[in-house]
Amino acid sequence: MSVRTIGVVMNGVTGRMGYRQHLVRSVLAINEQGGVTLSDGGRVKIKPVLVGRNADKLADIATKHGISDFTTELDSALADDDNLIYFDAQVTSARVKAVLKAIEAGKHIYAEKPTAESTQEAMALAEAATAKGVKNGVVQDKLFLPGLLKLKRLIDGGFFGRILSVRGEFGYWVFEGDWQEAQRPSWNYRAEDGGGIVLDMFPHWHYVMENLFGRVQSVYARAVTHVPARVDEQGNTYQATADDAAYGIFELEGGIVAQINSSWTVRVNRDELVEFQVDGTHGSAVAGLRNCRVQHRSATPKPVWNPDLPATARFRDGWQEVPDNAEFDNGFKVQWEAFIKHVLEDAPFPNDFASGARGVQLAELGLRSSAEGRRIEVPQL
Ligand SMILES: NC(=O)c1ccc[n+]([C@@H]2O[C@H](COP(=O)([O-])OP(=O)(O)OC[C@H]3O[C@@H](n4cnc5c(N)ncnc54)[C@H](O)[C@@H]3O)[C@@H](O)[C@H]2O)c1
Question: What is the CB < 6 Å shell around ligand 1?
Fold first, then answer.
């Protein structure tokens, strides 16, 4: 069977996501396995063309991984007809300008979330891509996590009966940078640079809710900056102008209430960094990144409230692990493979710029809800 190679312009590969998840764990891993297999059995390998602001950093990555093409000139990478796809994992604030350029150059576009900082810009990207007739996709990696795939399997199998509510708990302590280095980039904590946990995480929660449970109809959120000053990569103290925690309530179609806490100022007392508890009339589940535990109505204990007695029941022992029953590959890589099949053979790819824009809309309305102290209906885009 034939093997062809397509060029993919990758912008932002010196960053955390661009390097680890997209270049190493996805694109290079796909090439190592022999490419993406198309429906006719043909294979497609990817020639990454690295783009960034710092030639030395790009050269280091290129040398380390035996990559021949890198440039600081986005325009020249876009001018090459062999490059079919433009991928963007830059800081969020740099995305719109570069993506619009790539659309104009006729490239198919794959981008990290959020696709833009405002709904208006995110919609403009979706419209520009449609007008130009280029394929477009946004990273929605959480949908491909083993834990959430098992949760989806439970939903599809009717395990829950009628789903009543979802409780999401996401977060961990991000060090302030003074006595221990921060494990996230400082722009995340500056609103003027596209930071903030609402803009970062609400797009994720949006596609999780929309794909697993139903359309999001309203949002009430309280976004706060618990830690007002942090220390950046250069050791300088800066004001944290963006929210570092958000407490949100979302009403979904079918009357489901989802309550999701997102925080970079919480210490983990959970099994995983994100967990969703779903309660339904027939059963409940707790899904994390990898694992998923269930309790059926037939195995539900009957606690009686009595604070005079010590707690003896081991509630967590009454849950059962959902088996894998499948091989789970890296979610970023799975989505890359799907996007390449979408570009080359029109395979379905629902995670498009329009869905990305709905995620940005939820973030924008979440911030407005917090500023105005009220619940906000989500208009349908
Ligand atoms: N899908 C996910 O789970 C996930 C997780 C984290 C971040 N992200 C998204 O990925 C994108 C990158 O995040 P990251 O954590 O990798 O950030 P990062 O700071 O580690 O990397 C940012 C990249 O953008 C480049 N860049 C371009 N213009 C810049 C500018 N003006 N200032 C600073 N850097 C600039 C940097 O050189 C670097 O390559 C963001 O949009 C973020 O929302 C997605």
Answer: 12, 14-18, 52-53, 89-92, 94, 112-113, 139, 141, 185, 187, 200
Q: What is the 268 CA–ligand 1 centroid distance (Å)?
A: 24
Comparing CA positions, the residue from 174, 135, 199 lying closest to residue 345 is 135
181 exposure class (CB count in 10 Å sphere: 0-12, 13-18, 19+): exposed
Between the CA of residue 188 and those of 91, 139, 242, 256, what are the distances in Å?
Answer: 9, 18, 7, 31
Looking from the CA of residue 94, the nearest atom of ligand 1 is: 28
Among 19, 60, 91, 174, which is best to mutate for testing ligand 1, by the most ligand atoms less than 8 A from CB? 91
Distance CA 318, CA 11 (A): 48
The predicted-structure confidence for 189-225, as pLDDT tens digits, reads as follows: 999 999 999 999 999 999 999 999 999 999 999 999 9
Question: Would you state the pLDDT for residue 311?
Answer: 86
User: What secondary structure does DSSP assign to 170-217, as a single string?
Assistant: EE-BPP-SSSS--SS-GGGG-GGGT--HHHHHHHHHHHHHHHHT--EE
Q: Average pLDDT of the chain?
A: 97
pTM for this model (two decimals): 0.97
265 DSSP assignment = B
Tell me, in angstroms, the distance from the centre of ligand 1 to residue 185's CA.
Answer: 8
Q: How far is the CA of 113 from the centre of ligand 1 (A)?
A: 10
